[in-house]
Amino acid sequence: MAKHLLHLAEQVASTGENLNIADSLEVEKGSSGNVRSMLAMPIRNRNFQIIGVAKIINKLNCQPFDENDEQLFEAFTIFCGLGINNTMMYNELEKAMARQKVAIEVLSYHATASNEEIQGLQREVVPEAIKWNLGSLTFDDFSLTQDQMVLAAVRMFSDLRLTSRFKIEYKTLLRWLITVKRNYRNVPYHNWRHAFNVAHNMFGMLKTCNLLGVFEDMEILAMFVGCLCHDLDHRGTNNSFQEKTGSALALLYGTQNTMEQHHFNHAVMILNSEGHNIFSNLSSAQYARVMNVLKQSILATDLTVYFQVRMEFFSLANEGDFDMTQKEHRELLRSLLMTGCDIAASTKPWDIQFKVAKLVTSEFFDQGDLEKTKLKITPPALMDRDRKHELPLLQMRWIKDICLPLFEGLTKVVPKLAPMRDGALRNMAKWSKLAATSQENNGTTTDILEHCHSLERGPSIDPPPEAPPKIPDG
Ligand SMILES: [Zn+2]
C-alpha cells in the first residue's frame, strides 16, 4: 500500500474518526495516482476498542462517497468487527481446548494405574475372605495395607459373584481398582481406606444379612462400585465449605450435593478411561441401569439426602409396611444402606470407633482452620480446634441423632443388622461417659486431655446440620 494511504489508515485508527475524502488530488498525493475517492472507518470489537481499519476507494460512478455510503459501510465494519472477534475467540478456544487436552493426558498418565503396578498385583494370590475377616461386620478398618485393600476388593467382587456374572476381565478390574485408589487424595479421613471400608461394610451387610436375594445383581454391582467411588477426589472439605468459598466445584455443580456430584463424575471419567471400563461386557440396557443406580448410590452419601428420605423409611419400618418386593421401597433401602455403610464406623468396636473419630476430627479441624484464616469466620464446634474438649459430647450427639436412628430403622427391616445398632449404642454410651467426665472436670481431666490431645489433627462424614431433623420415636 502506498505510504500515504497507510498514513490515512493510521490516522483513522488513532483518532477513531471516519475519513471521507472526495478530493482526488489530496488522495493522489503520494499514492500511485489512480485513487480518486476514499472512505475509511475504524473496525471495533465488542468492547468498542479499535481492532482495525476498513477502507474503500474509487466509487464506481466516480462520485464522492455520500452519507448513504457511509451508513452502509458502517454496518459492514460492524460485521467485520464481529467476524474478527469470533475468529480470535475461536482461536483462543482451540488453544484452550488443546491446553486442556494436554493437561488431561498428563494427569491421566499420572493418575491411572501403571503396568508395573498391575503386573505386581496380578502375581499376588487373592486370599479367601476368611483370612482377612472380610465376612464380619466388626472387621478392623485398619488391618490391611493399601495394596491388600485392592486385593480384598477383588475378593469381594468375586464373592459377590460380580466378576463372573458381569464377565469383568481380571486385569481391567485390577487397573480400575488401582486407579480408583490413586484418585483418592492424601487427606486424614476421606481417603482410599475410607472408601474401601465403606465398600467392605456393604459387602458385610449383603453377605451376613441375606440381602443378596433382595437386590438385582445390577443393583449390587452399582452399590458396591458406588461405595468404592463415593468420595473420589475428596479434598477434606465439605459441601458447605465449597459454597462458602465459592470454589470451582460449587461453580461447576451448584450448591446441591456438590461434592457427591463431583465424586460421581470422577467415577464416570475413570470408567471412560482406556482399559478401565469394568462395565464393558454389560448390554446397553444393563449399562444404563447400572449407571443410574451408581449415581443414586453416590448421591445418597450426602447426608442431606439421608435427611430427605429417612422419615419415609422410618414410618414404613415402624408401621411394618416395608415391602422388599416393592421397587420404591428397595430404592429407599439402597439409599439408607449407602448412608449406613458410610457412617458404620460408629458401630465398630470402641478402639476402631475412637481411631476413626480422631481421623474425622483431624480433617474437620483442618477445615475449621481454613474457615478461620481464609474466611475469617467461626467454624462449627465440630471443626473448631479450640473447642476440642467438646468432642465427646459432639460424638455422642452425632451417634444419638444421626447414626443410631438409622441403624434402629434398618434393624427393623433387616433384623440381622442388630449388631450394628448395638455397636452404635455401646459407642454412644462410651462417648456419653467421656462427656460426663469432661463436664465434671471442666474438660480438663487427664483422661479427656489424653483422648482429646491425640485429636490434635485428626474422620468422611459431613457434620450434622445445625438443627438435625426431628428423630422418630424408636
Ligand atoms: Zn464417605
From TrEMBL:
Which parts of the sequence belong to the PDEase domain? 114-438
For AMP, which residues are the binding ones?
Answer: H190, N191, W192, R193, H194, D231, D342, Q395
Question: What cofactor does this protein call for?
Answer: a divalent metal cation
Q: Which GO terms describe its molecular function?
A: 3',5'-cyclic-nucleotide phosphodiesterase activity; metal ion binding
Sites binding Zn(2+) 1 sit at H194, H230, D231, D342
Where is Zn(2+) 2 bound in this sequence? D231
Which residue ranges have biased composition labelled Pro residues? 461-474
Q: What does the cofactor section's free text say about binding?
A: Binds 2 divalent metal cations per subunit. Site 1 may preferentially bind zinc ions, while site 2 has a preference for magnesium and/or manganese ions.
Give the Enzyme Commission number. Answer: 3.1.4.-
Q: Residues in the active site?
A: H190
Pfam families in UniProt: GAF, PDEase_I
Keyword tags: cGMP, Hydrolase, Metal-binding
**Signal peptide annotation:** none
Gene Ontology biological-process entries: signal transduction
Bilayer-crossing residues are none
Region annotation (Disordered) maps to: 455-474
Keyword Transmembrane listed: no
The record's comment on protein family reads:
Belongs to the cyclic nucleotide phosphodiesterase family.
The cross-references to PANTHER family, in alphabetical order and at most eight, read:
CYCLIC NUCLEOTIDE PHOSPHODIESTERASE
**Name of the protein this chain belongs to:** Phosphodiesterase
In its UniProt entry, the species of origin is given as Petrolisthes cinctipes (Flat porcelain crab)
Q: What is the lineage of its organism?
A: Eukaryota, Metazoa, Ecdysozoa, Arthropoda, Crustacea
